[in-house]
Specification:
- It catalyses: N-terminal N-formyl-L-methionyl-[peptide] + H2O = N-terminal L-methionyl-[peptide] + formate.
- By secondary structure, this protein is α+β, with helices and mostly antiparallel strands.
- The protein is 29% helix and 30% strand.
- The chain contains three helices and seven strands, in the order H-E-E-E-E-E-E-E-H-H.
- The strands form two sheets. It has a five-stranded antiparallel sheet with strand order 1-2-3-6-7. It has a two-stranded antiparallel ribbon with strand order 4-5.
Length: 172
């Protein structure tokens, strides 16, 4: 496994619509393993393939947070098939928008259809943080970053701060 480079805003790649995956094979599993290592190292609880410059409909998640209790989930071609009428608000962050957080309202629960690590179709009800996380990552597959839910002024301020921080770290 190897760590991958995470793409930051305002890279136009993050606005790309990711392509469906034809089949789950060894190359795709290797990508998912690398994504998982990258996510844990960052550290984060979710990562979409587009965030590592691969425009495929692939997500890795692990909302457990504790290294000893890791429970990664691999989602290929994830699709939300149902959303609850109730909503939750979470203070979301993103590995592509480092050090910035904002409250985003999303359905409190969703049903998701996807292919797992072995290419088997799964249907799963996700609630709470897991529901928020999967919606956040599916947004990435559709070219949407969580700051797109904010006002233009707030979004532009965050992007400028990320650009400045990125520029400052490259100088060192």
């Amino acid at each position: 496994m190897s760590k991958l480079q995470i793409v930051n805003v305002p890279d136009p790649l993050l606005k790309t619509l990711s392509d469906p995956v034809g089949q789950v094979d060894d190359d795709l599993r290797r990508l998912m393993d690398d994504m998982l290592e990258t996510m844990y190292d960052a550290p984060g609880i979710g990562l979409a393939a587009i965030q590592v410059a691969v425009p495929k409909r692939v997500i890795v998640l692990d909302t457990e947070g504790d290294e000893e209790d890791r429970q990664p989930i691999f989602l290929v071609n994830p699709e939300i098939t149902w959303e609850s009428p109730e909503f939750n608000v979470y203070n979301e962050g993103c590995l592509s928008v480092p050090e910035h957080y904002a409250e985003v309202e999303r359905p409190a629960a969703v049903k998701v259809k996807y292919l797992d690590y072995d290419g088997k179709e799964q249907h799963e009800l996700m609630e709470g943080l897991m529901a928020t996380c999967v919606q956040h990552e599916i947004d990435h597959l559709n070219g949407v970053v969580f700051i797109d839910y904010l006002s233009r002024l707030k979004r532009n301020m965050i992007i400028k701060k990320v650009q400045k921080a990125t520029k400052d770290t490259k100088v060192l």
